[in-house]
Amino acid sequence: MTAALLWCAGIIAACCALVFARMSYEARVHAVTRAEVTLERLPKAFDGCRIFFISDIHKRKLSKSFLRDMQGKADWVILGGDIMERNVPLERVRENLDILSRIGPMYAVYGNHDLKADPAGLADALKKAGGVLLRDDNVLLEKNGARICLTGIDQPLQKRDGYPKPPALPPEALNLCRILVVHDPVWIRHVSEKPADLILAGHTHGGQIRFPFFGALRLNRFYRKYDCGWFAWYQPRSAVRKPQMLISRGFGNRRVALRLCCPAEMHLIRLKTAEPDTSES
């Protein structure tokens, strides 16, 4: 009996070691998830343009080999907040931003942990790296004479503070394709209609620890529905008829550097212009 118990204990210990190794690997991987998204209002000049999107870096450090792999592969870099957290040295943040800024023009929004850590220091680091911090701001991106609008939604310090209305578009941008970045996808609760063709968000980490069949047990009801991946709606009476949203699992980790069935990710998103709808002609 003793030998059998020792054998079982050995098997259990080996399985636990394998699971732990897998969890550690998923938390540290430099994986880029590639996707193509068709946007109804995207100008032809932007067809094939690529966005590098990264969210929830927290305390992780980007590798220089990653920089070599990504250079020349994206037209813009968008940071979805939680670029740092408390006790992360600003020097590490500056190094990450320097790497990201070399990929392409860089735009960012605050996340809740940025606001609790050092928002002023982060804003200064972004500015010195050539990045643009969007706090309820619109910027126009241009390509071969065509334009689209990029909107950054500012993160409230406390969720009970709520979100203001999205910044009004200037008259010349009212009918432009709009890409909107917001740290926390709960923002969609605060708008009656999704006001952008493409919404980029993070915050959830996908739950970070997920179990087969059960998903992420630590997420509340809203985030269990909007945990990670792609979402789409149909708004036939809105200026934006077919909004889509990507929620990233994030690059960094919260509390522990462990993940399960939810590997860390970054994104390379290829924009595609929709073909003209001739169904009614």
TrEMBL record:
GO molecular function, one term: UDP-2,3-diacylglucosamine hydrolase activity
Record-linked InterPro entries: Calcineurin-like_PHP, Metallo-depent_PP-like, Metallophosphoesterase_sf
Organism: Paenibacillus albilobatus
GO CC, any one term: membrane
Name of the featured protein: Metallophosphoesterase
Residue span, Calcineurin-like phosphoesterase domain: 50-206
A Pfam family hit: Metallophos
GO biological process, one term: lipid A biosynthetic process
